Amino acid sequence: MHVKLASQVPYQRPEMDRLVDLFFELQKLPLFEGSGFGAATIEEWFQYDARAMHMASQTDQDQERVRFRNLSSFLARLVKAGFEDSEMLYAFITLQEALEYEFEAANASHVLASEYLVSMAAEWIIMAGEAFLLDVEDADGYASQGDLSWEGEPRFSLGRWQFWTRRFGFFAGCEMLTEETRNAAKLAAEKMKCIEEQECEAFSLYLDLVIDN
Questions:
Q1: Is the pTM of this model over 0.85?
Q2: Rounded to an integer, what distance in angstroms lies between the CA atom of residue 106 and that of residue 205?
Q3: How far apart are CA 37 and CA 112, in angstroms?
Q4: Which InterPro entries is this protein grouped with (predicted)?
Q5: pLDDT tier for residue 145 given thresholds of 50, 70 and 90
Q6: Are both 65 and 94 inside the same structural domain?
Q7: Does one domain contain both 72 and 162?
Q8: pLDDT tens by residue, 186-212
């Protein structure tokens, strides 16, 4: 139910935040079973090929992109709100699709896909970047899919995080993308750097405690 409803609510509208609040209230009901992040959500995510978009018409393509963009925003907001059964696999796949493919400015399909995917990936970082570093075990192994520019191990790592940060920086300066998408990419890159610095600082404090003891 939540998949269909969330995909119909425009992600820029305040109604999306109210939908997240409603979802939290619904899970408190006795008849509410499970998290709602089961086969329906996973099937919805994996059936959608943002780069191929094999649809019947341009109108259908546009509608499908909007629908999936809304769903992605809903899931990112649930993570930000602290929904305990949130699945960061969706964030991982979105970042991979947006940032790990080669970009050709002269290729219209590359520009279209990046315009759409980079803004979606940036929202995951801006909304829930801190949570991403805490819950990525199930996402390992997805790097082997597709023609990717990431050449490291097929798992999440600090190196991969830094690679994504650099890619956001690249798209922040890409004149082929809209100003809105460039600004989102810039914010995402800045937040990733801040998160990395905070994590490194926390790890250093932990090491100091271990050494002192």
A1: no
A2: 47
A3: 29
A4: OpdG (IPR022085), Oxopyrrolidines_Biosynth-assoc (IPR053204)
A5: low
A6: no
A7: no
A8: 999 999 999 888 876 665 565 556 545
